[in-house]
Structure formats: C-alpha cells, structure tokens
Amino acid sequence: MNKFCQQNGIIHKTTLPYLPQQNGIAERAIAIIFEMVRYMLHSASLSLRYWKEAFLYAIHIRSLLLTSGLDSMVPYEAWTGQKLDVSHLRIFGLIGWAHVPRSVRDGKL
User: Fold this and answer.
1) What string of DSSP letters covers 5-52?
2) What pLDDT tens digit does each residue of the chain (109 aa) get?
3) Whose CA is closest to 64, among 79, 48, 42, 43?
4) Could you tell me the residue ranges of all domains in the chain?
C-alpha cells in the first residue's frame, strides 16, 4: 500500500482504531454528504428507501465541486484529466418515465 501511495503522490496517514476524533476531516466530509442526502430526500418528498441513490448522487455532485486541495480544478478533472461537463446533471427526485418495449410488457399499461 505504501508503494502504491508513493507512486501516485498520495499522502497516507494512519490513525488509531475506534478513535474518530483523530480523523476529523473524513468525519466532517461524511457529515456533509449525509446532510446533502437528508436535504435531497426531504426536498424531493421521497422516503428513506431512496437513501442509497441520494447518497451516490451526493458523492457524484461533491466530486464536481472545487476543493481547496486542488488549484482551480475539481476532483473529476484531476482524476480523469478531462474537462468537466455538467450537462448530464438533473434535479434529484424528478419524475421520469421509462419506455418498455411491447415485446416484454403486459397489457397496455
């Protein structure tokens, strides 16, 4: 693991197990993600059943935001080397319909 981190420019620091106070940055990042999830579910009037989808979308959105660790670059650009395109983003909880081909659907509905 140390060799992998050194080759990829990753600073690897360890903490004592079961002591979240030493890992404040990660704990705060997790808290921010869960705040986003709660807000997304509440604003879309969705049940907690959709928390996984909201969580994945929140993570995706966070990877598209600027961070202080990267100079004028978002994590997506740093990871992929491609320019950011946000045209694929949609409102979370928006009602959508899927086309089901006649060959696999039952009846008219």
Assistant:
1) HHHTT-------TT-GGGGHHHHHHHHHHHHHHHHHHHHTT--GGGHH
2) 889 999 998 988 888 888 877 778 888 889 999 999 999 999 999 999 999 999 999 999 988 888 878 888 888 888 888 888 889 888 888 777 788 888 888 776 6
3) 79
4) 2-80
Instruction: Name the CA dihedral angle for 98, 59, 66, 10, rounded to a multiple of 10 degrees.
Output: -130
Token look-up 């994945």 returns: 56
80 φ/ψ sector (left φ>0, alpha ψ -120 to 50, else beta): alpha
